[in-house]
Design goal:
Strand order of the largest sheet: 1-4-3-2-5-6-9-7-8-10-11-12-14-13
Strand content: 15-25%
Number of helices: 21
Largest sheet: 14 strands, mixed
Number of strands: 19
């Protein structure tokens, strides 16, 4: 590791004492968990990044564990498509998120330089990226007093600071350098080292944001405490500052946060929600995020500043490509624009339509991971095959328009369906759930094919997902899974069973509803669909996810408390028994289908790389409980 002020390559992490990491981090990040950082850093130092993080999280109280996990695992560069794709050769990043931002950026640029005000914190970042096999990154400690960047003039294409409020060590202690002066020094240095057409991106939490009002009214403090990190700063002050320093073009973007996680970028003047529009608070949210109020009360802002003139970004080039391919066809002279920009786990979802239209015409999915690319290709196959079946549901699914690539970024295009989705509790939920269950029941009746469970059927529908569970949860669960497989084989062998076309992720959030009549208008997200699958699983997931959004249930707990013992509410029992009767499911195989709900959840919905060891162990416990249930 280099000494302060010196540049270092991606060398193995050097051992050092972390006795004062917590105190230093307390001054660098107004985070409610900083008291625990010392133990976390010591674990990383002794065991490496992954093992150290897992060991620390196993010892962390549950209410604190999620904060660390979210910061370490979620994508922090979902805004990347606002950038010009040719300007990512050499990037400078001030990382405040344990290397999460740097890890994302390292795959986008040729050379990444990471800076930090705290040398010990920087070492933790270096350990993480080293353990992840990142080799195109160097690391530099900078002094918070002089704020001097040891790089030559015009040497970087861009500078990225994901969250200004969590970056500056002078904000709470050591007032020898006033915060505005220190920030001016930092941005002045950034302007110096950027190339003539370089850019600066900085995220700024809004001290007047409506989410801060809500937390104040409900007397909830922010999970990260970042709202009070820099009470003097606003995005307008930052915009004024970077203009004074010499940046010519400054573009602000309204950012929507969910538990301090960036989930949406508002590009249109008017914000239109696609979720929970039945709820009054969602109508208020639409007003607050639309102009002119959006420029004052959005939760946060992303400022993209250019040293020279701005150029076409990725979104502009994507629209040009879609027009040239004939996927976007103009009905008027109005240009096509991005109407909605959502950031989800592993992907960004865009809605693209003409500027004058209230909603988009096409949905474009931009995968951020290889696994998402594979799932989207599978979804395309399923949508095309389902459209040819002639079932009633075929008129309620998106039309797939093709796959493409712009600047090495894959994209998938499908039609945008009308309607809104629901993912909160409300008086409307039982009504729309009953309608969703009816749509599912009709779909499964139309696609059902009855088979006797023989070796071919059992291997495909039971053995394969069980093997996936072993692959996900590791060899420690192998004996339990094999026992489960043996008992299930005895239960279903030689029985008649309807094989149906499954959705794979049939939760109310993936069912689009008319906001006025509450009729079902569409079903989306078919990337886990199977043309030949087990019945009942989709309905069980619809029931389970409703409990998740209504009661905050964890799927593992709901499975053990309700699905495994078949303990449902009267409403759930009603739609459950009607489904079983109408599909024609043999009572002898129902127990096995309940167990296969959990097996399918782990096999196909769980990405083991996104879970730390204590979370995987919870899944092993549930699987072993199934073994004991079958043996008893």
């Amino acid at each position: 590791m280099s000494s302060p002020g010196e540049n270092s390559g991606s060398q193995p992490f050097a051992s050092c004492s972390y006795s004062h990491v917590a105190a230093n981090c307390a001054s660098e990040r107004s985070w409610s968990l900083y008291e625990e950082l010392q133990e976390f850093a010591r674990s990383v130092d002794m065991q490496g990044w992954k093992a150290g993080a897992q060991d620390f999280l196993q010892k962390t109280p549950a209410n604190s564990r999620w904060e660390f996990y979210r910061t370490m695992s979620f994508d922090h560069a979902g805004w990347r498509f606002l950038l010009e794709p040719d300007s990512l050769d050499r990037i400078l990043c001030l990382d405040t998120l344990y290397g999460s931002t740097a890890l994302e950026l390292s795959s986008l640029c040729c050379q990444l330089s990471v800076i930090q005000f705290n040398a010990h914190f920087l070492q933790v970042i270096q350990q993480r990226l080293h353990d992840m096999g990142v080799t195109n990154t160097d690391y530099t400690h900078i002094s918070p007093h002089s704020v001097s960047l040891p790089f030559p003039d015009h040497s970087f294409d861009g500078f990225i600071l994901y969250d200004l409020g969590m970056a500056l060590p002078w904000q709470t202690v050591d007032k020898t350098t006033p915060a505005p002066t220190a920030l001016r020094k930092l941005f002045t240095e950034v302007h110096r080292i950027l190339k003539r057409d370089g850019f600066l991106y900085v995220g700024v939490r809004n001290r007047y944001g409506y989410t801060r009002w809500r937390k104040a009214l409900t007397r909830k403090r922010s999970s990260t405490g970042a709202a009070s990190a820099m009470p003097w700063v606003s995005w307008r002050q930052i915009r004024r500052l970077v203009r004074q320093i010499g940046f010519q073009t400054v573009q602000p973007y309204r950012l929507v946060l969910n538990d301090d996680q960036l989930v949406e970028i508002v590009l249109d003047r008017r914000y239109r929600s696609v979720k929970n529009r039945f709820a009054s608070k969602e109508a208020v949210k639409e007003i607050l995020l639309s102009e002119p109020l959006g420029s004052w009360v959005a939760p946060a802002y992303g400022l993209l500043a250019f040293k020279g003139k701005s150029r076409a970004n990725f979104l502009d080039r994507l629209i040009i490509d879609l027009e040239q391919r004939g996927i976007l066809s103009a009905r008027t002279q109005e240009p096509f624009v991005v109407k909605r920009y959502q950031i989800l786990s592993g992907k960004v979802i865009l809605s693209i339509g003409q500027a004058c239209a209230p909603y988009g015409d096409k949905i474009v999915v931009l995968p951020l991971e290889a696994s998402v690319v594979a799932r989207r290709r599978h979804e395309a196959t399923m949508l095309q095959a389902l459209a040819r079946t002639g079932v009633q549901l075929a008129s309620m699914i998106p039309t797939f328009h093709g796959e493409g690539c712009v600047h090495r970024q894959q994209y998938f295009v499908q039609s945008e369906l009308p309607g809104v989705s629901v993912d909160v509790d409300g008086l409307w939920l039982p009504e729309v759930t009953q309608r969703a269950a009816q749509v599912l029941r009709t779909f499964h009746i139309e696609t059902a094919q009855f088979h006797i469970v023989d070796n071919t059927v059992f291997t495909k529908l039971f053995s394969h997902p069980l093997q996936c569970v072993i692959d996900k949860l590791g060899p420690a669960i192998k004996d339990s899974v094999e026992t489960v497989e043996t008992v299930l084989r005895e239960q279903v062998w030689g029985k008649w069973m309807p094989i149906v076309w499954t959705h794979g992720d049939y939760k109310i959030e993936n069912v689009l509803i008319d906001r006025h009549t509450r009729a079902i208008q569409g079903v989306i997200d078919w990337d886990l669909s199977q043309s030949e699958g087990l019945p009942l699983l989709d309905l069980l997931y619809l029931i389970t996810y409703n409990r998740v959004i209504c009661e905050g249930k964890v799927i593992a707990d709901f499975f053990l408390d309700h699905i495994l013992p078949k303990r449902f509410s009267p409403f759930e029992e009603s739609i459950y028994h009607i489904y079983i009767r109408d599909i024609g499911i043999n009572n002898a195989v129902i127990d096995a289908l309940h167990i296969m709900f959990w097996i399918h959840h782990v096999a196909y919905r769980v990405e083991s790389s996104q879970f730390l060891e204590h979370m995987l162990e919870k899944m092993r416990v549930v699987t072993r409980t199934i073994e004991r249930h079958l043996s008893g």
